[in-house]
Amino acid sequence: MERTFIAIKPDGVQRGLIAEIISRFERKGFKLVGIKLVVPSKDFAQKHYHDLKERPFFDGLCDFLSSGPVLAMVWEGEGVIKYGRKLIGATDPQKSEPGTIRGDLAVVVGRNIIHGSDGLETAKDEISLWFQPEELV
Ligand code: ATP
Ligand code: MG
Fold first, then answer.
1. What DSSP element (H or E) covers 31?
2. Model's pTM, two decimal places?
3. What range(s) does the Nucleoside diphosphate kinase-like domain occupy (predicted)?
4. Smallest Cα–Cα separation from 95: which of 114, 76, 112?
């Protein structure tokens, strides 16, 4: 069954949005198969966002991801990668539709509270970066 990596970034955890976000994935019908709270090192954040290393915001983005607890999760279900990103909304919360997580709960792109894998390959890579196989049920 398809799986995706979803992370509530430090701003989402700090703002107390964990239950709200988990609830949206649960109500849709997706299945939680892995979850843990971690403070990633900057080196780890750079690994996670390696595709963006040429972008001007890369350094600030990695500093931010490693600035506090991140809730790392793996969700499972038919179409969960694509639909998970639909639940999350557009990268820039100014362009996210109301009803999406970023549309309802965030304002600026640098504090958009949640990450979701963008494809089958990245989902596999991100799940294996953040989780050991025995941490998944
Ligand atoms: P994520 O990978 O976090 O789920 P995404 O796939 O919607 O987000 P990406 O293009 O992968 O968007 O960008 C990764 C993250 O980098 C964004 O979530 C955002 O926090 C940050 N980011 C993207 N564009 C900008 C920007 N122009 N300025 C500042 N930060 C940005
Ligand atoms: Mg992305």
1. strand 31-38
2. 0.97
3. 1-137
4. 112
Angle made by CA atoms 96, 99, 104, in degrees to the nearest 5: 65
The residues annotated with a catalytic role in the active site are 115
Question: Which ligand has the minimum distance to the alpha carbon of residue 64?
Answer: 1
Q: In angstroms, what is the span from residue 64 Cα to ligand 2's centroid? A: 15
Question: What's the pLDDT score for residue 14?
Answer: 98
- Farthest-apart Cα atoms in the chain, separation: 39
How many angstroms from the chain centroid is the CA of residue 45?
A: 12
Q: If you average pLDDT over every residue of the chain, what do you get?
A: 98
Does 84 sit in the ligand 1 pocket, CB within 6 Å?
Answer: no
Q: Which two tokens stand for residue 113?
A: 């509270």
Question: Across residues 120-130, what is the average pLDDT?
Answer: 98
3-state class (DSSP) for residue 42:
helix
Q: 54: CA distance to ligand 1 center in Å?
A: 13
Q: What ipTM does the predicted assembly reach?
A: 0.95
